[in-house]
């Protein structure tokens, strides 16, 4: 009877806490039209959606785009408040040029928000397939570029003081051997974001981590996944190809192209909340798969976690031909 009473009390406390949190997170900041935000990676995907949403809310948006086409598309689609900037986060010179543009525009008001969204998926395949150059290319954008952008724009954020929103991934908490360079970069994003949050809190700047799972963006389109996998496969030696076999590739493709990708607008809404809510979360585990499946898996003992992954997600760890 005492156990049931305790469980009932815990259920009541959890319900009260959940309702209080929901109510608290509903409040939005006043005078959003006075705030300026820089978003990287706005050509497509999450960044493009967020830039449009914030522009509609009246914020001043600096949208960093890698390509001229991305700049032109946003300039045509959005209001004059939104200022597209051609920006390559893997180039320090490009980041510095973008900083000078934003600094001249915001002047003494500073920058309210920095959204580090730019990212690439990188090569797909077994953990031993990608080259060191492959790892370097992914890290240059997903991690080192994020660090460079953050360090460069911190002086403007201190003037507000503002918020930093870093787009990580479920892959930064639960590593799959078929996307190792991506996972390594996102684990780095998690570590950098945690250290940044604790280190600059005293300046009044808050840091918020976005952790999406499988969402439909250009980097996971079927054609792009297929091309990436075949490009990596073609670079392998004949001995490695024979060791893994064609079935290994087919199993990976089947898993990536299973059609279970979700609407990326959900992620853009989480990023918007991190920027505009009066009481934002420090970490956003976006959608139920991340919150109730992937992240809880990381709390299990390591061997049990590996077993459950093989059981629930066999396509992530297909068996090479030589090991069958």
From TrEMBL:
Keyword Plastid part of the UniProt annotation: no
Keyword Oxidoreductase: yes
Family: Belongs to the short-chain dehydrogenases/reductases (SDR) family.
Any one GO MF annotation of this record: oxidoreductase activity
Domain of life of the source: Eukaryota
Keywords annotated in UniProt: Oxidoreductase
GO biological process terms, semicolon-separated: steroid metabolic process
Protein name: Retinol dehydrogenase 16-like
Gene3D superfamilies according to UniProt: NAD(P)-binding Rossmann-like Domain
């Amino acid at each position: 009877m005492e156990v049931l009473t305790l469980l009932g009390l815990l259920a009541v406390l959890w319900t009260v806490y959940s309702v209080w949190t929901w109510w608290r997170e509903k409040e939005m900041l006043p005078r959003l039209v006075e705030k300026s935000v820089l978003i990287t990676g706005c050509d497509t995907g999450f960044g493009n959606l967020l830039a449009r949403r914030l522009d509609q809310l009246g914020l001043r948006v600096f949208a960093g785009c890698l390509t001229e086409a991305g700049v032109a598309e946003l300039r045509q689609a959005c209001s004059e408040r939104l200022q597209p900037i051609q920006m390559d986060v893997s180039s320090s010179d490009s980041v510095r040029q973008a900083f000078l543009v934003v600094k001249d525009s915001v002047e003494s008001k500073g920058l309210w928000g920095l959204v580090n969204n730019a990212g690439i998926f990188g090569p797909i395949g077994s953990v031993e397939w990608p080259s060191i150059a492959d790892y370097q290319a992914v890290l240059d954008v997903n991690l080192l570029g994020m660090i460079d952008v953050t360090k460069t724009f911190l002086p403007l954020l201190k003037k507000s003081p503002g918020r930093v929103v870093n787009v990580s991934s479920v892959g930064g908490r639960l590593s799959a051997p078929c996307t190792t360079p991506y996972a390594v970069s996102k684990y780095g994003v998690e570590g950098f974001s945690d250290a940044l949050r604790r280190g600059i809190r005293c300046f009044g700047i808050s840091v918020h981590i976005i952790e999406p799972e499988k969402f439909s963006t250009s980097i996971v389109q079927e054609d792009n996944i297929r091309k990436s996998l075949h490009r990596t496969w073609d670079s392998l030696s004949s001995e490695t190809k024979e060791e893994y076999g064609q079935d290994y590739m087919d199993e990976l493709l089947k898993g990536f192209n299973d059609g279970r990708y979700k609407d990326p607008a959900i992620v853009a809404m989480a990023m918007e909340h991190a920027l505009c809510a009066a009481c934002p979360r420090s970490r956003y585990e976006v959608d139920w798969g991340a919150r109730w499946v992937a992240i809880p898996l990381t709390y299990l003992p390591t061997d049990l976690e590996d077993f459950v992954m093989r059981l629930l997600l066999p396509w992530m760890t297909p068996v090479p031909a030589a090991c069958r």
